[in-house]
């Protein structure tokens, strides 16, 4: 399995909407609100790096109300 931590910057006031949508996704293990440069921190798991990249680009980076992301990947 490949695990990644994703920092997410949302549109102003959209943190709860984005967090709720992420929590519904099977690959998302948990989501927490943060304060500072990013609004959310999510822990995501996929079977390999390619599936992780695909999931992030299709379901997180391109999601409605997501402005930007920063992903820290850990192979395990």
UniProtKB/TrEMBL annotation:
InterPro entries for this protein: Dimeric_a/b-barrel, Tscrpt_reg_AsnC/Lrp_C
Return the Pfam families for the record: AsnC_trans_reg
Tell me which domain of life the UniProt entry assigns to the organism this sequence originates from.
Answer: Archaea
> What positions does the domain Transcription regulator AsnC/Lrp ligand binding occupy?
6-71
The identity of this protein, by name, is Transcriptional regulator
